[in-house]
Amino acid sequence: MINKIYKVGIYIRLSREDGDNLESESVKNQRTFLHKYLEESTDFILTGEYVDDGYSGSNFNRPAWLKLLNDIDNKKIDTIITKDLSRMGRDYISMGNYIERVFPENSIRYIAVNDDIDTLYETPGLEFLQFKLVFNDYYLKDTSKKIRKIIKTKKQEGQFLGWKAVYGYKKDPNNKYKLIIDENVSPIVKYMFDLALQGNSPRQIANILNKEKIPNPSSYAGLNRGIKTSSYKLWCPRTINDMLSNETYIGNLTQGKRKKITYKSKKEIRVPKEEWIITENTHEPIIDKNTFSTVNNLLKKNKNKVNNKNVYLLSGFMYCKECGHAIGINKSSDKKRKYTVCTYYASHSKYKLCTPHSNNYDKLEKIVLESLKQLCNSNIDKDKFKREIKEELKKKSLKTKIEKEINVLEVKVKKNLNYIDKIYEDKLNGEITKETFQRLTIKYQKENELKKKEIKELQEKLTNIIENNEKETLNKIDNFLSFQKLDRNLLVNLIDKIIIDKNKNIEIYYKFNA
Q1: Of 27, 395, 412, 456, which residue is the least packed, with the fewest Cβ within 10 Å?
Q2: Residue 153: closest CA among 257, 279, 283
Q3: pLDDT tens-digit series, residues 64-118
Q4: Quick one: which of 275, 256, 258, 276 has its CA closest to 267?
Q5: What is the span of the domain harbouring residue 270?
Q6: How far apart are CA 360 and CA 338, in angstroms?
């Protein structure tokens, strides 16, 4: 009788996520072990080797495993051999399905050497198969729990553990757990916050960035996420909103915003903000805290407003004294008059749970602004205020990027001068020829001439920017103090809320002591 020769595919898997001992279970050790096993038998012929290095045993969506299944379908192999059960996988349900249904239906012989399992025979290991599968699954769950705990602790300590830094930052090449500013795109982040301060909604900001053809985070990072549709490179309001509310931009590392559904699934869900892991002052901020706070107050005030064209100056500030709900702004049927209305009353008018609180909106806005103007003018020394702002502008450069560029160029110029001194000494000592000295000297001198020219241009640019910025800032102060040009940014910084009662009485609550 001629013994059957089995076409073998050896399967090797290694994963830190499973808590594997990376030394004892290394790919090399598994391969050596399995080849030695094959050498001791004459019934096997090795036809394929399948290696998944760095893939968890919690699921079977692994490239080498999928190739193995494809080779089974094409009748290239009829036997699978692993070092032990856990190398094939650790998910109890999937493992049982493969060993008890998929393999028998496809006439596949499975061998787990160290667990004494061979589906061709009634080996002792098969009697305890279910216990081993349950134990492996429990081990995976327990290991996953321990790893999550370690990761959470590291995040709480302020270590960045993401695979990619948030847009505007990059991983420090000298410390992968720390973020540093990405100078290539940090100006875009500042631009985005500036647009928000001007009253633009996330949708409007997205439209502006798209119109200016600024690559979105995915495009900039070169990510390949599925099929690239026509909107792949476009900014979307959700992305803008998430970025404007991300404390990472003020130096507070924000992690844990998403989590896996279970330890067996790769699918993630968003985590409530109160469960995020936020560690303060872990890296250099791109946005100052005052700007961040103002922008987020604006986002809250504008929340649930479908179109920013209908976000009036007092939208989101007004509340009903009787029921505590927001007071909205509607237009009359002929579109000529705007009036306020209690939103709770409007939604439940037939139950008479509140009253309309109807006021002429334009008159109400004038009353609030006049009150605010009088209050500020009576409490602010305009000349003193201007002097202090002007002095502050001189002390603090608003264009640190240009200053950094100048500093880098100056350092390079100094290095080149040192190189010239060094090669001169080398020439005197006979270590280099006169021709080499002249060639290198000309090279470094030309480089310095170009760098000095760049420095001069940057210094002129910096001077102009500072002067223009000072004029622009002082103009804004004039507008602020005269209330000639009011915007929601200003109101967010001054007014907390406006309470209106059924008798049309108005109470303004300021963010400062009036």
Answers
A1: 395
A2: 279
A3: 999 999 999 999 999 999 998 889 988 877 888 888 888 988 999 999 998 888 9
A4: 258
A5: 169-299
A6: 6
Same domain? For 495 and 407 the reply is no
State whether residue 80 is helix, strand or coil.
Answer: strand
Q: Is the pTM of this model over 0.85?
A: no
Nearest-angstrom CA–CA distance, 268 and 259: 5
**What residue has token string 């050497």?**
113
- 159 in a domain, yes or no? no
Residue 118 lies in a domain: yes
User: Which tokens in the block code for residue 134?
Assistant: 């349950």
Q: Dump the DSSP string for 208-239.
A: HHHHTTPPPHHHHHT---SS--TTTT---HHH
Annotate 201-221 with b (16+ C-beta within 10 A) or e (fewer): bbbbbbbbbeeeebebbbeee
| Owner of token pair 């553990």 | 161
The 10s digit of each residue's pLDDT in 418-443 is 888 888 888 888 888 888 888 888 88
Is residue 110 within 8 Å of residue 99, measured between CB atoms? Answer: yes
How many angstroms separate the CA atoms of 69 and 189, rounded? 47
d(CA 310, CA 491): 17
Contacts of residue 207, Cβ cutoff 8 Å, sequence gap at least 6: none
- The count of domains in the chain is 4
In 3-state terms, what secondary structure has residue 255? strand
Residue located via tokens 């009150």? 371
Last residue of one domain, picked from the residues 299, 328, 350: 299
Q: How many residues does the chain have?
A: 514
Distance between CA 186 and CA 396 in Å, rounded?
Answer: 19
